[in-house]
Amino acid sequence: MRSPDGRRAPEPGDTEASLLARAQAGDVAAFERLSSAYADRLFMLLLRLLGDRAEAEDVAQEVMLRAWQGITRFRGQSSYFTWLYRIAVNEANRALEKRARRPAGVAIGADELQLPAPAALDPSRQAEASELRRALGRALADLPPPLRTALVLRDIEGLSTQEAAEIAGLGEAAFKSRLHQARLRVRAAIGDEVLASTGG
Amino acid sequence: MRVPARTDDHEWSQHHLSHYVEGDLRPRARRRLDRHARGCVDCGRGIRAMRALVYAAQGLGGLAGVRAPETIFDRVRSAGAG
After folding, report:
1. Complex ipTM value
2. Is A47–B69 a contact, with Cβ atoms under 8 angstroms apart?
3. CA–CA separation, A144 vs A166, rounded Å?
4. What would the pLDDT profile of A144-196 be if each residue is shown by its tens digit?
5. Got the DSSP string for A152-187?
6. What is the pLDDT of residue B82?
7. What tens digit of pLDDT does each residue of B13-54 get?
8. Given an 8 Å threshold on Cβ–Cβ distance, is A198 in contact with B74?
9. What is the DSSP string of A4-21?
10. Of A109-118, A154-163, A186-195, B70-79, which range is least confident?
11. Nearest Cα to Cα of residue A48 among A1, A4, A106, A118
12. Which residues of A touch B16 (CB under 8 A)?
């Protein structure tokens, strides 16, 4: 059964473990149900890492294909979400490497970052928040991909250091080092005056 | 006798602002940065800026209505049918 948007809808009795077992036995529909739970979040991650909707759509398809092709090798040492996210980060990095070999890059737009203006703020504070969003978008786009990945996973996605490090394929100390470097660069790019004036 | 501040305190503090707001400094290092920032306008503002940066980045989280494209499983379906 499909939901109105064309994706497989979860059915009563479906658990992640049962869907995983069926997917590993070759059931495509079970794989879709299993992965659909994370599809929106995974696509948002790709938008943040790649900054380009068309490229994110292409990479998202590739991530799902890679996951499907590798599902029998998933042994449950991490959560399915962590495993899927790790594939997504690897595929995003691969796409960024390809892009680096092309003449012009694509900047991450504020729209891709999806920061809603907080309704509780007065107009001048909303304008400041929008400006900060744009500045953050530009600064993120200028980060080298490994640093951008660290900041996106830990600060924007809100993952724990342990989970984010695992997804990035790093030890926690190495991951933290990248995160701190990323924050220092973004801070330098935006400037203390702008950041400190927006509060926090 | 008052011990003069180490001459490299400012550069060291500037480099460890993210560690500071993340809670990654050992107590002695945290006290060192606290002590320096109390008398340093730049580092005091740097701490506020770093906190604001982390807060703003956290505000970017969430899906904000973004949906994965309907085509996301197209290649899986093609491979599964093949």
Report:
1. 0.84
2. no
3. 19
4. 999 999 999 999 999 999 999 999 999 999 999 999 999 999 999 999 988 88
5. IIIIIS---HHHHHHHHT--HHHHHHHHHHHHHHHH
6. 59
7. 999 999 999 999 999 999 999 999 999 999 999 999 999 999
8. no
9. TTSSBPP-TT--HHHHHH
10. A109-118
11. A106
12. 180
The answer to whether residues A93 and A149 touch, using CB atoms and an 8 Å cutoff, is yes
Q: How far is CA A200 from CA A107, A135, B54, in A?
A: 26, 15, 8
- Taking the Cβ of residue B56 and every Cβ of chain A, the question of whether any pair is shorter than 8 Å is answered with yes
What is the chain A residue with the closest CA to B41? Answer: A192
- Whether the per-residue pLDDT at A23 is higher than 50: the answer is yes
| Residue at token pair 């049962």 | A18
Q: Which single residue is written with the structure tokens 């009563």? A: A12
Considering only CB atoms, B57 lies closest to which of A39, A41, A151, namely A151
